[in-house]
């Protein structure tokens, strides 16, 4: 087990999480995370860091998880729509996006095999978190279905992180 290291959180973000803007900042960070643009900290630290800095009462945790789910879902939906509009080649060419053609082919296989459940499943898993957004954007999946599956997977992921933080005495396993 590894103790949650708040040193992993950028100091400017730590001060914003401790301010009256904490929930707005959390929402913005989660949009970036959902859109695959969060580069200044691991996505696995967002909710636990927010709980450490904002609060870990039941009411705080419910709001933190809700804000995180809505934020990541908004970010993923923006990515979903970008992929739908710009296409496969655009995403693979962009340096900001963590996908090679071979990795995208593997994700296509998951999506072909599991359908929409791959969206929710990939949102729950470390290292592939949200990557099935791309094959979903390239498919015939409608917006509402994507939003529901994305939110379900994000709820699962954020709840697991919050639960590990609360049940583990502020210890996380990574």
Question: How would you summarize what this structure contains?
Answer:
Keywords: Cell membrane, Membrane, Transmembrane, Transmembrane helix. The chain contains nine helices and two strands. It has helices at 11-17, 22-34, 46-54, 58-86, 88-93, 101-114, 117-124, 133-138, 143-167, and strands at 2-3, 171-172.
Q: Key terms for this structure?
A:
mainly alpha; 2 strands; two-stranded antiparallel sheet; VTT domain-containing protein; 2% strand; 174 residues
How is this structure best described in words?
- Pfam families: VTT_dom.
- Keywords: Cell membrane, Membrane, Transmembrane, Transmembrane helix.
- It is a multi-pass membrane protein.
- Its main location: membrane.
- The termini are close together.
- The protein has 174 residues and is mostly helical.
- The protein is globular and about 40 Å long.
- It has one domain.
- The mean pLDDT is 85.
Question: What's the topology here?
Answer:
Blueprint: E1 2-3, H1 11-17, H2 22-34, H3 46-54, H4 58-86, H5 88-93, H6 101-114, H7 117-124, H8 133-138, H9 143-167, E2 171-172
Antiparallel strand pairs: 1-2
Helix pairs in contact: 2-3, 2-4, 3-4, 4-9, 7-9
Uncertain stretches of 5 or more adjacent residues: none
Q: Give the helix/strand class.
A: mainly alpha
- Taking strands numbered 1, 2, ... along the chain, how are they ordered across the largest sheet? 1-2
SSE series: EHHHHHHHHHE
Helix fraction by DSSP (H/I, runs of at least 4): 55-70%
State which percent range the strand residues make up.
under 5%
Quaternary organization: single chain
Cα separation of the termini: 7 Å
The shape is globular
Q: How many separate helices?
A: 9
Care to count the β-strands? 2
Main sheet specs: 2 strands, antiparallel
Mean pLDDT across residues: 85
Whole-number radius of gyration? Answer: 16 Å
Number of domains: 1
């Amino acid at each position: 087990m590894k103790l949650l290291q708040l040193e992993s959180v950028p100091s400017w973000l730590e001060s914003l999480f401790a301010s009256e803007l904490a929930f707005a900042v959390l929402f913005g960070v989660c949009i970036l995370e959902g859109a695959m643009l969060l580069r200044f900290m691991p996505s696995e630290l967002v909710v636990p860091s927010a709980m450490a800095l904002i609060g870990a009462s039941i009411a705080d945790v419910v709001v933190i998880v809700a804000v995180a789910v809505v934020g990541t879902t908004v970010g993923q939906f923006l990515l979903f729509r970008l992929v739908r509009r710009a296409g496969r080649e655009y995403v693979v060419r962009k340096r900001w996006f963590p996908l090679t053609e071979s990795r995208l082919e593997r994700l296509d296989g998951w999506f072909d095999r599991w359908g929409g459940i791959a969206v929710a499943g990939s949102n729950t898993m470390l290292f592939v978190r949200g990557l099935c957004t791309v094959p979903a954007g390239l498919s015939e999946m409608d917006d509402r279905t994507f939003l529901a599956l994305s939110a379900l997977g994000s709820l699962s992921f954020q709840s697991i992180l919050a639960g590990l933080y609360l049940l583990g005495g502020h210890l996380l396993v990574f």
